[in-house]
């Protein structure tokens, strides 16, 4: 199993706190069984959010080819521009 990242911890913790507070306020639970049930429901919701949240993207593995390394790029120089009949001159 993959280890959870920081975002999963943060979202899961926020859902636990907010869901538990919302459940306690909406139900008006005052006794220990009601409070325990609201806390358990908030915890389950937080775990569900953290587990279903997409994890970090893994880096794409590329093959190491000799020509693909940075810094070894060939420098391309454009050919010199010559006039129209430049190949017919004989150098007088």
Summary keywords:
mainly alpha
Helix-strand category: mainly alpha
Fraction of residues in helix: 40-55%
The radius of gyration is: 33 Å
What is the terminal-to-terminal distance? Answer: 82 Å
N-to-C SSE series?
A: HH
Output the number of helix runs.
2
- What does the average pLDDT come to? 79
Instruction: Count every beta strand, where a strand is a DSSP E run of 2 or more residues.
Output: 0
Q: Major β-sheet, in short?
A: none
Report the β-strand fraction as a percent range: under 5%
Shape type? rod-shaped
Show unreliable segments.
none
Short description:
The protein has about 90 residues and is mainly α.
Molecular structure report:
With about 90 residues, the protein is mainly α. Helices cover about 45% and strands about 0% of the residues. The protein is built from two helices and no strands. The longest helix is centred in the first third of the chain and has 22 residues, at about 5-25. The termini are far apart. The mean pLDDT is about 80.
List strands and helices in order, with pairings.
Layout: H1 6-27, H2 32-52
């Amino acid at each position: 199993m993959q280890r959870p990242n920081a975002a999963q911890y943060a979202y899961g913790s926020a859902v636990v706190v907010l869901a538990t507070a919302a459940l306690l306020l909406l139900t008006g639970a005052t006794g220990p069984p009601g409070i325990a049930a609201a806390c358990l429901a908030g915890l389950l919701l937080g775990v569900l959010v953290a587990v279903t949240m997409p994890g970090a993207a893994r880096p794409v593995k590329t093959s190491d080819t000799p020509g693909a390394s940075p810094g070894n790029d060939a420098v391309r120089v454009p050919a010199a521009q010559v006039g129209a009949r430049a190949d017919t001159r004989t150098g007088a």
